[in-house]
Amino acid sequence: MSRRKYVSFLYTVFAMNCLFCKIVEGNLPSAPVYQDELCYAFSDIHPQAPVHVLVVPREHINSLADSNESDQPLLGHLLWAAGEIARSQGLAKGYRVVVNTGQDGGQTVDHLHLHLLGGRAHGWPPG
Ligand code: AMP
Ligand code: ZN
């Protein structure tokens, strides 16, 4: 098996066991906020702010650390979608977009996602 095919096979295995893939496919319940051909956005089950939305690509990518050059249009789209959702949620005073990545980044679900947090002031530096 070529390296490319092996990586693709590994991703299929990851995706089959992935919580957010199951949500994107409609096999687990979620509260949808926005969706299009590239991404799906839904309310976080443990909200950390009055507005706490997760924006996830439909395609399984483990994390930002696993993204590559060919993912640039998708990554840009996810950021655009977060801004669009923020506008639709009336977050005119501002908001925060967070991409927890890997162990030190506090990532707990290994499917790339953006947190959109709004409706309250956020401190800096983050914890
Ligand atoms: P992270 O820790 O950055 O990987 O973020 C994962 C987020 O997914 C956390 O904020 C969780 O509260 C959220 N989460 C976990 N399971 C679900 C679920 N079934 N529906 C919605 N959000 C979830
Ligand atoms: Zn996934």
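^ adenosine monophosphate complex. The helical segments are 3-16, 19-24, 72-88, 102-105. The chain is about 30% helix and 20% strand.
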